[in-house]
Amino acid sequence: MKIAAEGSWGRPFLATMGLAALVAAGVGDGGAWFSLTVLAAAGLGFGVLFRLFPRGLDFALGAGIGFATYAALFTVIGRSAFPDASDTAVGAAFLLPVLAFLLAVIRRRNRLRRIVEGGETPDELHLRRIGRVLLLLALIAVASLSLPANRLGPGWQDAAMIGGSAVIGGLTARAVRELVRLLVDMAQLMDALNGRAKALVVPIAAYAALFSLITIVFACLFRVAEGLSRHPLFSGPQGPIRLGFRDALHFSVVTISTVGYGDIWPTDDGARLLAAVEVLAGQILLLFGFYEITRDRLSDNRNGEDKEG
């Protein structure tokens, strides 16, 4: 893992907090209170981690991914299993595992610093341990969704939710070393993918350009065919429609990507045939993109073998 300079914490911190702000806004369908709780937890967590490990700032990327995953799973499982829990209980239940993790990190910071700053190659023991931890967490989540806690009164749901979070917090604190190693592994993986992405810039740009060209060309063809026809060639939920260019462009994007929203569809045989040709063009473009990516990968491998030779 790359080591960041001690004074260069500003940009990573802002990037991770930007991700946290996006997640906080996304999971806040229960009200602003929960969004503020998520954002406060992120600020506290990242602040502590940046303070303890100033030379392992790439670790923040793994921590950001882990925090986003936790917030999303907590929102889905917590709201489903405990729909009548109070805002206070929800906020407390969310904070408990975060605080338990941070306290464990602070308590074992000297041992964890070597992992964060230098990284460790995953071994079988680490994988077994983190597998057991993730399995236990998954069992708690399944139990929360399976047991009829949602039939309890609001007070009992508050108690059950906080109790479950306390158990998760205990497991998190106990397995803090393995969790930190997992976050470091995630950061290393993202760093490796970032290095590979640089080699894909040209194929991606070429693919995007051809995708845009084909989409626009077929949108124009749909629009021209519509303009030359006496009768509408397309229909929507309300019946036959006259296709403007914006609708034609939307239909073209939906067609080439084979999404099929079903809001616009061709009713004329000629328009259907044209749409089929666009689908074929999209599949050929996808094949071209796959070929270019694999060709660059094979070229990199050959260059590496030549250097070794």
UniProtKB/TrEMBL annotation:
Q: What's the protein here called?
A: Two pore domain potassium channel family protein
* Keywords, alphabetical: Ion channel, Ion transport, Membrane, Transmembrane, Transmembrane helix, Transport
What does the record list as GO biological process? monoatomic ion transmembrane transport
List the Pfam families hit by this protein, alphabetically: Ion_trans_2
Annotated membrane-spanning segments are: 12-28, 34-53, 60-82, 88-106, 130-147, 159-176, 197-225, 273-293
Q: Which residues form a coiled coil?
A: none
Q: Boundaries of each Potassium channel domain copy?
A: 242-290
Q: Which InterPro entries match?
A: K_chnl_dom
